[in-house]
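Shipment paperwork, digital attachment
Item: protein structure file
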Amino acid sequence: MLAVGIVTEVFGPHGETLPGFDFALCTDRPGPVPTDLGLALTITHGLDRLASADLVIALPWAGFRTPPTPAVLDALSAAHERGALVAAHCVGAFALAAAGLLDGRRATTHWRFAELLARRHTNVTVEPDALYIDEGRIITGAGAAAGFDLCLHLLRREYGAAMANAVARDVVLPSHRDGGQAQYLAAPVPEDCRDERLAEVLAWARENLHEPLPVAELARRALMSKRSFARRFTAATGTTPHAWLRSLRLSSAEELLETTDLPVQEIAHRVGYGSAAVLREQFVRRRGVPPHSYRRSFTNAP
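Attachment content:
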């Protein structure tokens, strides 16, 4: 039910300010479907509903150790063959693997079942630590609440940072976490005042992206040594300060490209890059296209 709630929350209605999606839950046996909460969920759509879907997400199910029915596997393969995006949340990856869609690809799933996935499907490169892995038209995500990261990544990828950020704000979530960020954090919540100071420093950094923000300065503001700050930062966020800042700068640049007509040079300055050339280099690495091309994809700007 958590997975159902996540996809419904992200792709369901968000009022008049955000565009809606034609969203549906499907099963090979329409009718009452038991859930892990002991409540039956009535699903009216069969697999024929997948024939016109632009995005298909395989959700986790209790019997994932047994392959889905041939009808489900055929429907997933057919969706992929006609060009739909096919994704999996948590152990939904086992369905994609059984359909052969993960062969020769990298994939992730809930860390607890990553070894089982790798053992059963030796043609799949399983990366147990990733939050999600984007392989083009096949995307897999980790378990539980990481489903939000997967869904927001899909929104960001297909509709841009502005929309993904708006939906994230609506459901009160961080707007973006890199797929390479660790699934499991040793210190996921603040343990003492040093973590509170860390949170304050991160908030300050978000408000001052136009500054260079060297790690030494962040550590000074957190009243820590540079080494202690880096260790504490990684334990709390699952990534390094440099990687976190790079992701934040590029996400902010994406949103400015989508929602403003500011020159790329000005955007580079606002997000902390010394020149448009540096922003372009980082942007191409992340998006595969330069900023001007990205802007044309989401706006009518020249």
